[in-house]
């Protein structure tokens, strides 16, 4: 049963199912006993949960495993659903693998299919230097290529699942391609190359757990963030393939300005048509994912207050 379905039941409803432990902390209750304070999630909802009088062994099980089979009871705290956990067990590796999609931990598209699309886009780049650069980054550099195809797009904000970075990158590139097909004033090769490399720094910025889910920022991620890390990686690849300086400059400007303005993390505003478009296309992909996810957490015909979007999101009753 999904968490979205579970929370429609009355207090006392019992459930057994495989869920993601998004957050877990051992705390001390007023009676001096230890309890587990958790956040349980799947791709439909997230619910806070308490595991009262937790044993040392169970605490270790919850600390070390991001996915568990939970035996729990539905409760309400100040009208909001909350679970009381009765037991937690380790699912088999096969069960874990089969649950990744429903737990919102895996990209909706197959990773191999997305890699084929990435390769096709790179092959379609006509400017030889840019094509060589993209091959050097996404194909020849095997350690990077392996990480990139499974990396999450974020810890929380958008595309925060295995393969999310590749899914987001392809969404930006596909929307860019569509826009180029309708506007011959755009430098197609620059915009496509910029779309593909704009977030490569996230591979070094986001720290992942054993499953490949983002759990926070790495040390260099915190200190430098993905825009500067991506610049460093791009500069290295430009040197490696001997990219024409002006092309390198345009691509670097696109990476640097893709967040649009200083308060969103870009040291310069877009000063190039392709850079401006990249900023909007990046936002288009992010907002599409955020709105559909946040609306999915509301009842049909109801609103959900989204912390990420800082507003209420409406889910139409007609679906
Ligand atoms: Fe970014
Ligand atoms: Fe992005």
TrEMBL record:
Residues 165-287 form the HD domain. Its EC number is 3.1.-.-. Keywords: Hydrolase. It comes from the Bacteria. Coiled coil: none annotated. The keyword Hydrolase applies. One of its GO terms (molecular function) is hydrolase activity. It is an enzyme of class 3 (hydrolase). Pfam families: HD. This is 3'-5' exoribonuclease YhaM. It comes from Sporomusa silvacetica DSM 10669.
